[in-house]
Known about the structure:
- The protein is of the alpha+beta class.
- The chain folds into 3 domains: 3-87, Elongation Factor Tu (Ef-tu), domain 3 (Beta Barrel), CATH 2.40.30; 93-247, Threonyl-tRNA Synthetase, Chain A, domain 2, CATH 3.30.980; 283-403, Diaminopimelate Epimerase, Chain A, domain 1.
- It is 38% helix and 30% strand.
- The chain contains 9 helices and 20 strands.
- It has helices spanning 5-8, 89-113, 138-153, 165-169, 229-250, 257-297, 315-327, 357-368, 388-403, and strands at residues 3-4, 14-25, 28-33, 35-36, 50-52, 55-63, 66-71, 82-87, 117-122, 127-131, 158-163, 183-188, 192-195, 210-217, 222-228, 304-310, 331-338, 343-349, 371-374, 378-383.
- The strands form 5 sheets. It has a 6-stranded antiparallel barrel with strand order 2-3-7-6-5-8. A 5-stranded mixed β-sheet has the order 16-17-18-20-19, with helices on both faces. Strands 9-10-15-14 form a 4-stranded antiparallel β-sheet.
- The protein starts with a strand and ends with a helix.
- Bound molecules: zinc ion (ZN).
- Residues 99, 103, 186, 196, 198, 200 line the site of zinc ion (ZN).
- Residues 99, 103, 186, 196, 198, 200 line the site of zinc ion.
Amino acid sequence: MSARLYYDDPYVVEFVADVLAVAECDGRYxxxxxxxxxxxxxGGQPCDLGTLGSAEVVDxxxxxxxxxxxxxxxxxxxxxxxxxxxxxxxxxxxxxxxxLGQHLLSAAFEKVLDAETVGFHLGAETxxxxxxxxxxxxxxxxxxxxxANQIVIENRRVSSAWCSPQEASKLPLRRFPDRQGTLRxxxxxxxxxxxxxxxxxxxxxxxxxxxxxxWERSRSGTRVSFLCGHRALRDYRWKNAALSxxxxxxxxxxxxxxxxxMRQGEHLHSLSRRIEKLQAAxxxxxxxxxxxxxxxxxxxxxxxxVARWFxxxxxxxxxxxxxxxxxxxxAVALFAAVGDGGVRAVFARSDGVGxxxxxxxxxxxxxxxxxxGGTPALAQGGVRAGGLDMAQRIVSLALESLSSRP
Length: 406
Ligand SMILES: [Zn+2]
C-alpha cells in the first residue's frame, strides 16, 4: 500500500517516489507509487492533478485501497524507477478551501438549525451540500453563514487524528462514519469533529470566506450551494462588475438597482398595454379607411374586396387587420406583406360570404411553390423568397381567382 503524504501534510506538493507498477488500460497508463501526495477522487472531493516526471497525471482514483495515477502517456516512466511528483497546488488549495469551508458550513447548520448534512458535491464551478431540512429562510441562512465566517475569522487550528472506534466513540463526532475500523477525524479546534479522509488547510483562516449563494429543494430536503476562498472572491468580482454596470446603466446607486429594475418592469408593462390599445385603435381606423376606399372603387359590389400588399409588415398585424375587416361584414380581405425572410399572405372573409379562403390560399401557394391553409373564413400562407413584387403577385392572383368566378 502506498503512503499518502497528504494525510500528515496537505501542503506537500513535490515528492520523490518509487514506481511500484505500471499497467496499460484502455489506451491509458496506470501507475502505482510507494508514496504519493496525489489525492484520489473520493468523499465528494475531486482528485489532484499534476505531473509524474514529465508525464501528465490526468486522473487519480482509489482502487482496492490503493492510489492509482492515470497518465495519457508514460514519457519514459517505468517500474523500479524513482520519479519526482508535482501536484498542481492551485487546484489542491481550491479543493482544500471548498472542503474545509464545507466542514464549517455543515457544522454551523447543525449548531444553528440542527440540520444534518447528508450529501456533498465539489464541482468544477459549484459546491453544494444536501441538508435534511425541509426549507431554509434568508434569516436562517444568514445566521449559519455568520457562524461559519466567525470560525474563519478566528483562524482556528485544524488538525487530524487517527482514532480507533473506541476512541472515536468518545468524541463529539458530527456524523458517524459508514465504515468500520480506524477512523481519520478532522478537528476544527473547539468547533467540529468530523470523520474525513479529504485534504484540509491547517487553519480556518485559509478558507478566506464561506458564502452561501442559494438553495433549492432536493430529494433529501434542501440543497445549498456555496463558494469559499478564491472561488468566492472571483464570484464577488464578476457580480460586483455586473451590479456596477447595471447601476451605471440605470443611473442609480448599486443598492437601488433591484428597486429600479422593478420600476422599469412596471413601466414596460404599462407601456406595452398602452401600445396594445393604440395598435387596436389604429387597426380599427385603418380597417374602416380601407373598406371605405374599396367601396368607393366598386360601388354596390358584394362582397366588397379589400386587396392590399405591404412592404415590411408583421404577420400578426395584417392578420388582425384582415380579421377586423371581415368582422365588419360583407367583406373579403386579401393581404400580403414582406417580412420574416419571405412574403406572408392572409386571406379573410366575413360570415355569410361564400368564398373559401382555405381553398383560395392553397391554390395560390401551390402555384408559387409556397405553403398555406386555414379555415374557409381565414387562411394564411407564405413563400420563402421574394419582395414587394411577390406580395403584389399573390394579391393579384387572389383577385383574379375571385373575379373569374361566377
Ligand atoms: Zn473533509
